[in-house]
Amino acid sequence: MRIGFDLGGTKMLAGVLDGENNLLGRSKAKTGGGGNDEVISQILEVTRAAIAAAGNPEITAMGIAVPGPIDIGLGMILEPPNLNLRNAPLAKILKQELGFPVVLENDVNAGLWGEYVAGSARGYQHVIGIFPGTGIGGGIILEGRLFRGKMGSAGEIGHITVQSDGRLCGCGNFGCLETVASKTAIARDLAVLAMNGRSPVLAAAGASDIRMVKSGLIAKALKAKDPGVAEVVQRAAMFLGIGMAAMVNTFDPELIVVGGGLVEKLGDSFLKAAETSMRARAMPRLVEGVAVKAASLSDNAAVIGAADLAGRSLAS
Fold it and tell me: What would the pLDDT profile of 268-301 be if each residue is shown by its tens digit?
């Protein structure tokens, strides 16, 4: 048995899996913000609860999906922007406390790998993963292997420049894909609609405060046919398609998997709009055979991917 763990800025989730990637027990909690000791203590608590939920089987390995930047070789999480852990030798500490090997992996890579071994990407060997959320995460599988690059940071799809004179991005550049196609970008534009009274649904929800614009509220406003909301969402989908086209032209994939809470809530219409934009902009001969699918494993993707990668790492 292996255990996979998804460590996020707002929640953490652990799951015990058998050799066929079947989930036998899981545990979930909100992520605390008290620094290294508190967060690590919470990771241990959630891990042990998942093992107990699975009937206390013997665990051979643990994979933990964490936001970057990380040092995979040293098993360290460095300075993630949305998580209060700093330069923590996470793999070493968890192994000492739990008694089995622990492997770290970037959270987006782990999520894409989960889709590759147990979800929408099964049967494909060349896959791009794109996950719009607060930013836009990306992952790359080539010839059936994760492509990490020389520093382990390959797949920063959200920081492709799509507007040379565009908005300032958190990375310091202007016009990155995530400034126009992430959930944050959509929420910012919808907050303006709410402030100007152009969306009754958003205004009633207090969405002039960007923090109130959740994926479910965006979907609700679309369903209500609020003026301007569809235009904002369609524009984001168009830009997402531009990013997808760049991936097609660069990597010649068989499949692009698009996932995350935003895609789950907005559904097929958002994904189809992005795909249409991609096919209009990518090189025709390259894009002709490219499939586009929504991710299918939801919260369990990174858990399954991290566990599977840990098992493979220790077997090699």
Answer: 999 999 999 999 999 999 999 999 999 999 989 9
pTM of the model: 0.92
First CA to last CA distance, the chain: 17
Q: CA 66 to CA 43: how far, in whole Å?
A: 12
193 touches 202 (CB < 8 A): yes
Distance CA 20, CA 110 (A): 17
Q: Which residues pair with residue 293 across a beta bridge? A: 257
What is d(CA 21, CA 219) in angstroms, rounded to the nearest whole number? 32
The Cα–Cα gap between 113 and 129 comes to: 9
Domains and CATH numbers, the chain: 2-113+299-315 (3.30.420.40), 123-294 (3.30.420.40)
Three-class secondary structure of residue 41 per DSSP: helix
Instruction: Measure the CA angle with vertex 237, ends 236 and 241; round to 5°.
Output: 120
Rg of the chain, C-alpha, whole Å:
20
